[in-house]
Design goal:
Length: 402
Amino acid sequence: MTEDRRPVRGEVFERTLALLVELCALSSPSGDADGLRRVAARLGTELSRRGLACDVREERDADGVLQPVLVASGPAAGDRRLVLVGHLDTVLPAVPPKVAGDRLEATGALDMKGGLATLVGALDLLAAAGGRMPDGLTLVAVPDEESSGSISERAVRHWSARARAVLVLEPGEPRGDAESLVAGRRGLTEWRLEVVGRPAHSGLAYWEGRSALAAAADWCAAAQRLSVPGAGRTVNVGRLVAGTTDFVDALADNHALLGTSRQRNIVPERAVAEGEVRFLSAAEGAAVLAELTDAADRIAADHEVVATLITGVSAPPVDPRGPGEELVRRAVALAAARGFRLEVEDNRGGISFPNYMTDTASVPVVDGLGPVGGGMHTRDEWLDLRSLEKRMVLLADLLATL
Ligand SMILES: [Zn+2]
């Protein structure tokens, strides 16, 4: 279907690269609202020229400061949009970009102005091949992915809720002569274990005490053992505090006890452990939390203490075997047809755009569609221009099927 498409490293590539160089020269570290507005405006101008309606909305970040969000949307027949997600901000302020051979050395070239430029280039390739822009194509570019992420989270939640698919333009990874695409991302749930035992003098009445510390330590060791190497679930105990109720509840006032002889003769009646679990599917997340609750019940009975497990903040996983699987396979096949080998990351670490979605169980997500490079978040950041070329073609091919 695409044999007649022009060679890429022609006019479209050069124009895309020139735009990317411009975007990278505009300094837009997180928090620099004026710089971010300049990037949003420049990108918006290019997308308007390609038939998208561009709107730069001002939203309040975590500190109450107004920051720009670019929403560029194509005509939509139905109400389910094809949503592309990216961010305008960089970690560092910009230094002048430099093209050196097959590399663009520039702030944000990799993370992720390269991904934003890829979309512009892909739209041009699509148009040059006589293709139509997918119905309801919508780019949402946010200003705070590298900082608090509160606007990012809101925007992704809002726009993904009625999306027919979500494409994330964050970079893939170089893999020898191949590159990667992200199909899976672990979700997380935070938890807190509270244990109450019975205090006793350890010299006079040791056997009358019920150590919350010993119970919590048992539970923590059992919890950690639920972790499975590789792509499996993990449980991390981030902290465990135990001692007398005063010590635990007013830790800041009582930390000077550490290293002294005081209160060593009390069987500790109170313990608090906090941590998180990470998992690749909602079912796996539910299963591991059920096992942690069972372990708390078992240990409470064994130690004759009260143990309560409370869950907190949660971010959904992107299951590599979920609704995005078919789309990922399609992208890999489209790349292969162009002689470009894509490997699939089933288990990318960290929390990112897809974890902000309300519903990763029914909306397909493909992440890591942006070009690869190196030196992310450093002064040595660079983008592989051969990858930019390949990713433009891939995205154009993929959009043609959506
Ligand atoms: Zn990024």
